[in-house]
Amino acid sequence: MRRIFTALALALALAAPASLPAQSAPAVPTQAAAQVTQAPTEPSGLPLNAPPPTTLRAYWHVFAALAIAWLLLFGYTLVLGRRFATLDREIRQLRAEGPPA
Amino acid sequence: MTEVQTDSLASTRRWAIGLSLAAAAGVLATLWMVFFYVPTESTMGVVQRIFYVHVPSAWNAFLAFVIVALCSLGYLWLHDDRLDAIAVSAAEIGVIFTTIVLTTGPLWASIAWGAWWVWDPRLTLTLLLWFIYVGYFMLRGATENPERGKRFAAVLGIVGAIDIPLIHLSVLWFRSQHPKPVILKPEGPTADPRIVQTLLLGFLSFTLLFFALLLLRYGVERMRRSVEALRYRQAMDSPVTHDSQGVYR
User: Fold this and answer.
1) Interface confidence: ipTM more than 0.90
2) More confident residue, A84 or B234
3) A65 shares contact with chain B (CB less than 8 Å)
């Protein structure tokens, strides 16, 4: 029993330093933090929360999305058009053949 | 089996061409707005422009599957073959639009979330919707009796539509990474007016495109059934003969 208490006390003593900084975080923002929240600007003068950079990868994704959508829709329309033409031909052929004698 | 009327087919074709032209004009205007009119969204940047294809496609998929459910209900009640033809046509187009949603979404997510796919409730339920309506076609083809297949598929078409309100409400009910509605809100749209205008034009042009495709697909379905009816009639009218091997023809 005494050994268990010793192990528990040792574990608590080891765990305490790790959890202390989180618990003792300042409630009042420091001067540096206050500066960040009050003046969110870059050296260029642009605000920090300006639109994200328009990377080439983002453009690539937009074009890929549009290409996939239009290829699917255009391809489907073509398939439907071909099916329409084939069936139209078949109907004409079957009507021309007429009922067998 | 019924044979399709040539006049009704010509009318369907005329409507499909008219709607296609209107949809093409709308889509071109939407694309112009997406690239030259709408502002870049402040948190996600350029990639947010996928929104104008992704959301109208989702709307069209939902519209398609609601039509499937209503026509399936009508088919089970009235046994009208035309309702089944509309249902199967709408289901096919719904699967196409759901495929667009499921491919454009990950392209957007990979930039916005840093992951192509997450097992978020809305994403998972949308994938489930796609599987349900792919299963709808498999079920139709799996039965030996076509009429039975139509009935089974109609039941699945109705049950599958329950997933639609679940998809819409999942972002409100569960903790979700997917953005919440920005237009369909009780207090009205909160986005920039140019974003709302572009999205509304996208909705309109995609809806016109949906109805153009639906008419075209419905015409094809009626013609397919007409060919089957003509073949069946010819087979019934022809005298049964057999060749030298005893195979009946």
Assistant:
1) no
2) A84
3) yes
